[in-house]
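Onboarding guide, step 5: your first structure request.
Type a short instruction followed by the sequence, for example:

Predict the 3D structure of this protein.
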Amino acid sequence: MNSPATSVKLDEIRNIMNAALTSLEAAGVEEVSLERDAYWSVYFEGAFDMTKQPQSGVDSLEEDLAELRDSMQALANDEGAAVWHMFHHLQGLVLLMASESRRRLI
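The system replies with structure tokens like these:
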């Protein structure tokens, strides 16, 4: 029996994400609609604190994408970007892809 993982290498996460995106593309999914813009979010500050109920909020896919594009531009211009901020905004798009792939592929 395997012992529980205590860490995961970024390369493994990258490979998993690439495999998931490649599978979507192989199934003919080339884009996901942002028409359902608003979504429920549990902010990372409380997501891993099991001692209390986390606060949820409403986020926007359109705003997430705009923030990610701004962050990518900042990185390209060597201005730096807050990596935590990028991951925070990626969560909505990852949830959307999970929802869309389930709806389209099942």
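Each response can be followed by summary notes, for example: The mean pLDDT is 90.
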